Amino acid sequence: MAASLPDVTDLARLVGAMGFGPEQLQQAMTDPSFRRLVSQIPAFSDLSSSTYEDILDDAFDQEFSQTLRMIEQAKAAHLREQSLPPVKSPQVPRSALLAGFTRSSGPASATKDTVVTMQWRQTYIGVVPGYSTKTLDELERIDINNMLVRKRHEGAYIMCRIISQTRHIVSVEMIVEDPLGATCLLSIYRYPTALDCTVEQADMMFPIGTILAVREPYYKFPSNGEVPLIRVDAPSDLVFLDRHPVLLNGVTWPTPGPLRSIGPADNAVTWKDRGNRYFKRKEWICAASAFSEGLLQDPTDHRLLLNRAAVYIELGWLRSAAHDAERVIAMDLEDAQLLRKAVYRAAKAYYLSGRYDDVRRLSSLGLQCPEVQQLCRNADRRLRERNSGQYDWATIYGATRAAASRPDVAAYRGPVAVQIPKGGVRPRGLFVTRAVKAGELLIVSKPIASYFPEDTPSKQDELFRSINLLNDTMNNRSHYVLIDLVVQRMWDDPDLASVIQAMYAGESFPAANGYPIAPAAPSFVGPLSHSRTPCIDIDVGRVEGVCSINAFGVGDIDFTDAASEQQEYPNLDKPTGLYELPSFCNHACLPSADRTFFGDVMAIRATRDLKAGEEVTMTYCDSAQTYQKRTEFVQKKWRFACDCLLCKADLSDSPAARSRRAEAVDMPSSLGISAIKQRIAQIKSTYTDSPERRRCGIKPELFHAYHRLGFVYSKESHVTHRLARAKVELCIIAFMDALEAVGLVITDRSVSGPVKGPSSALPVDMIRVPSLSHLCTPTVIQIASALSGALDQDVRARNWIKVAIWIENTSTGGGEALFEQKYRSFLNT
Ligand SMILES: C[S@@+](CC[C@H](N)C(=O)[O-])C[C@H]1O[C@@H](n2cnc3c(N)ncnc32)[C@H](O)[C@@H]1O
Fold first, then answer.
1. Do 797 and 714 share a structural domain?
2. Which residue range or ranges hold the SET domain (predicted)?
């Protein structure tokens, strides 16, 4: 079972035994990073009563097998459907289709005044049949009645008119008719911001009467039902035809025109007013569409351009935002206030896209605009970060304690490059371009897109799951939304499309070896001409593959990928993000680099000294798990077998020894000291003294066992006052044994008497940083706390705190200042 949060009373007792008060504990427990930190320490995770744990275990086991069954059934149904031949569509009369098309009580029906307690949404990832790259001129028009079900109609497009309001569960659905009067359901997925929009907003995105073309439409049966529908997975397949006179020429509609739910506005001013109303309600996509419509009426309306720039910034369409604002700057308006607004919006779009030099250029125009000057000062700071790799981590950490934090820092690319190793044995990966020292900063990466559950607080009670047929996992809302967000980012960014093209997307997608690769799109792709049409064709299937392989769980010390926990706890929604350079990093259970999150910004540092050309690896799994668990997890999701030093060392033990070790590690929380000692002896006996183990140098399972022992000693020291001191000493010794098991070289294990050497001498050899530093730092702090609180060994305690700072600094940087911030609640005693 994965770590659960400890029982706070037990933790309080432990902390009390170490000399801390309840306030400190309470304060520390309000910090999510500390809560997670504590929950990762195995002994803590077992604090609750065994009965409680058993109940939880059973519940999770049941849920887990139910999840596996669901995935298997979904996959089987999908494969069965794929294996069947295309068929003619059953005829469903228009009236029957319209009568059966009721607005569901899905998420979109929830208005501000509706109380919705629980919502349920389920969908699939990995069923996208393709996306169109053809223009309408290259395609033949086809009619609904001539389409076959279970078929993507390559080389064809369908012209249709929306004749119903929308309904919305995961996709936005509506009924459409073709010029012959045939009708069918149209289901649109992944349209920007549509997942969580209200039905009213969906109606504004797809108003009744709108004429659409769907390029190379996929006609299919729904997963539950017999009335086929056109499923649009790539929203770039949609073409809005309202203003396509050539194609519409001669097209007539046999039925009377349906009443338009949203009437067209007469002129640019009316569109602007409408857009402003949407803007005030933060209905960005509707506002962008209204401003775009106004600009079709009057392409030079500077207010519409300015307003659209503002809403594009909100949507993350920074290239087009800058373009709109630059157009206004070029108009040389006499109104200085409008000009300043234009400069500010352009500067903001450049700043947010990391184009800091353009911010400086605009600032040098000499307009008296304090906001632009401030942006310019910030741009200078960002440029310094980007060029030097120097960051004020303590301040950044402080600023990222709030939920869903996205700190304002520059990305940094240190001495690393994406390369394909010669010889074809290793896959493409990330390598250092020069020798680096342990702890050196290699990369600071800002996400292509990130999602925190807190971004949509109204959805926190929602039950959302997506069955991922690409890797046979059950994904939660975060993973699905992340894909939507990447699609939204690509809407306006052809360069991102090239990056996605270059990233590994799994076995089902053509391999892309180079990085960066030549842009797939034409060398210059203009800005958005209208908000509802992306500037490129979007390969949504590939985006799904890329996110399924490369998404990271976002969290300070989160060493498990979001999807791994989802597998075990399908409804556990966790922050997640897609990152560019880190996605090229291969896995090792014993990695050469470590990641830390500051909000959604990922910093990667070397865990040991690396020679020029050595590979930068990170762990995809919890390296503290047994060989069996690590292998199973990595193999299932990424389909490879790790051959890092730890895996080689584990493989040098016999399979029987590994099994015995896995059994011994699985300790019920009720075990007493002698039983734990027995387990330790058993675990020790399973390691072979092989050259591989010596090279690897660590025994993670022993860390856990010794840590458990130390923890139980600590508990007992609290209960048996008479022997408290002796028990605390034994607790410290067990913690030291734990640290040695993961490679810390302790030179002074004494807990009393004179300190060896000078009083400030560290009790460890700093020649080698221990592995699993996220477990080591809290353990070292526990040693220091015990030395100072229970044994009055303040000098020793101070030296051990220095050890904790050293370990922490190597993995997260930021030195004493960041350490102090992170562990303040424990250190202020
Ligand atoms: C996140 S990507 C890593 C970068 C990838 N190698 C690339 O070319 O873009 C994960 C994929 O890389 C490969 N991979 C990662 N670590 C590996 C390892 N230790 N051994 C073999 N293949 C590995 C697997 O195919 C895995 O699904």
1. yes
2. 407-621
